[in-house]
């Protein structure tokens, strides 16, 4: 018990590239633990995470003093609650559900084009050459961003990465990047007002009662652009070590039942990679959770809880042999997209991207064994997001 108390938020932050040993220690001590060093609760158990995410007494809230001068961050639907959040989420879900049905061919063309390019080279950085362009071009299509200037698109990605860092609480990069991204979306909004189209940005424009100011529109376009890229980018990039290790087994399984394997494999990668590391919730009143978790678990009004989704996805009470990759794992109620009212509205789109990409990898590279290159992988320095920044692989060429 005493040893486990040494594991706190600082420990998890320092060891973000390989946190599961520390999650296990903390979970064994208390799956809902109050960390006095940061005056915040840490939820590392599946039951603790899902219970709090599904409890209306907790809200998604951002301290207005956290990011002075960046009010657009607070306007994101990520930090809305109640009826306001429900209405905003409905707009997003309605448009996405319509567009996702038409996206399969677009995503397939994107992935095929990328595979053709990297196969000719015989190697690739799975982040820069593969995961990043797939996630970028898919979300560009959803938002209705013009694709004629690809240099600009990559510039938008860099600016958006800075925005994502700031939103996640990692203050790195140039604040001017975020201002440039904001200016771009203001310009694009003005163009869309003059020439409406069937895309998500125009759906936001039509929902004037919800996104009533240009600041609301800009904030949520920036949020969708960042979140829509980050999830798929991290999942695909960080999933490659598992694909490499189990490539022959996956190929055999794919030949037997391609559709089922691709779907199940995608869910297992989501569980093991978990692109969104943690969420934060704040108690709106005193909440006594002693009936769910033995001991003193009274969360006081305004106290915060860090909910580690990646820890919940490795909880042995809910996943047999959680450290073992099982492509055909059943059941697999992973919480990579969150849980409850704030569950990620882009989950369906992300799954389509992931499954099509896995299908094309397995079918296109049947006779091309994947290998990790000798280059040492580099990690994203943002401990709140994590993920590879660079990871090189090679495969046999014809």
Largest sheet: 5 strands, mixed
Spatial separation of the terminal alpha carbons: 57 Å
What is the CATH topology?
Cytochrome p450
Shape: globular
The secondary-structure class comes to alpha+beta
Rg result: 21 Å
Total DSSP helices:
14
Q: What is the H level of CATH, i.e. the homologous superfamily?
A: Cytochrome P450
Average pLDDT level: 92
| DSSP, total strands | 12
Strand content: 5-15%
Low-confidence stretches: none
Protein name: Cytochrome P450
Keywords: Heme, Iron, Metal-binding, Monooxygenase, Oxidoreductase
Organism: Dictyobacter arantiisoli
InterPro entries: Cyt_P450 (IPR001128), Cyt_P450_B (IPR002397), Cyt_P450_CS (IPR017972), Cyt_P450_sf (IPR036396)
Question: Would you kindly provide a written description of the structure presented here, covering whatever features stand out?
Answer:
It is a single chain. With 398 residues, this protein is α+β, with helices and mostly antiparallel strands. It has a single domain, classed as Cytochrome P450 (Cytochrome p450). 53% of the residues lie in helices and 10% in strands. Strands 1-2-8-5-3 form a five-stranded mixed sheet, with helices on both faces. Helix 7 (150-167) packs across helix 10 (214-245) and helix 10 (214-245) runs parallel beside helix 14 (347-364). The protein is globular, with a radius of gyration of 21 Å. The relative contact order is 0.17. The mean pLDDT is 92. Keywords: Heme, Iron, Metal-binding, Monooxygenase, Oxidoreductase.
Layout of helices and strands, plus pairs?
Elements: H1 9-14, H2 20-29, E1 32-35, E2 40-43, H3 46-53, E3 58-59, H4 71-74, H5 82-121, E4 123-125, H6 126-143, H7 150-167, H8 175-194, H9 200-206, H10 214-245, H11 247-256, H12 258-273, E5 278-283, E6 287-288, E7 298-299, E8 304-308, H13 309-312, H14 347-364, E9 370-372, E10 378-379, E11 388-390, E12 392-395
Parallel strand pairs: 2-8
Antiparallel strand pairs: 1-2, 3-5, 4-12, 5-8, 6-7, 9-12, 10-11
Helix pairs in contact: 5-6, 5-14, 6-10, 7-8, 7-10, 8-10, 10-12, 10-14, 11-12, 12-14
């Amino acid at each position: 018990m005493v040893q486990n108390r040494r594991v706190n938020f600082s420990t998890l932050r320092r060891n973000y590239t390989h946190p599961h040993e520390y999650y296990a220690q903390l979970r064994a001590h208390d799956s809902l633990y109050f960390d006095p060093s940061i005056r915040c609760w840490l939820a590392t158990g599946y039951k603790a995470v899902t219970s709090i995410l599904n409890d209306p007494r907790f809200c998604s809230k951002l301290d207005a003093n956290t990011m002075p001068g960046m009010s657009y961050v607070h306007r994101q639907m990520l930090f809305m609650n109640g009826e306001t959040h429900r209405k905003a989420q409905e707009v997003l879900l309605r448009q996405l559900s319509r567009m996702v049905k038409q996206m399969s061919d677009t995503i397939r063309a994107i992935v095929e084009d990328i595979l053709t390019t990297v196969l000719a080279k015989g190697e690739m950085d799975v982040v820069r050459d593969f995961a990043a362009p797939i996630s970028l071009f898919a979300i560009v299509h959803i938002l209705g961003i013009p694709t004629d200037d690809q240099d600009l698109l990559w510039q938008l990605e860099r600016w958006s990465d800075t925005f994502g860092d700031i939103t996640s609480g990692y203050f790195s990069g140039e604040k001017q990047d975020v201002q440039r991204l904001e200016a771009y979306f203001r310009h694009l909004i003005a163009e869309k007002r003059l020439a409406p189209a069937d895309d998500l940005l125009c759906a936001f424009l039509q929902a004037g009662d919800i996104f009533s100011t240009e600041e609301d529109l800009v904030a949520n376009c920036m949020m969708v652009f960042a979140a829509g890229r980050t999830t798929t980018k991290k999942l695909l990039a960080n999933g490659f070590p598992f694909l490499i290790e189990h490539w022959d087994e996956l190929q055999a399984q794919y030949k037997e039942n391609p559709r089922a394997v691709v779907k199940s494999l995608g869910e297992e990668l989501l569980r093991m990679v978990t692109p969104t590391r943690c969420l934060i919730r704040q108690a709106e009143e005193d909440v006594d959770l002693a009936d769910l978790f033995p001991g003193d678990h009274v969360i006081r009004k305004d106290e915060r809880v860090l909910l580690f989704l990646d820890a919940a996805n490795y909880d042995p009470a809910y996943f047999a042999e959680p450290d073992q990759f099982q492509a055909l794992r059943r059941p697999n109620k992973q919480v990579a997209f969150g849980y409850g009212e704030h569950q990620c509205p882009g989950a369906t789109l992300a799954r389509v991207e992931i499954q099509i990409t896995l299908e094309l990898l397995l079918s296109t590279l049947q006779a091309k064994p994947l290998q990790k290159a000798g280059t040492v992988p580099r990690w994203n320095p943002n401990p709140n997001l994590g993920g590879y920044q660079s990871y090189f692989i090679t495969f046999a060429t014809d």
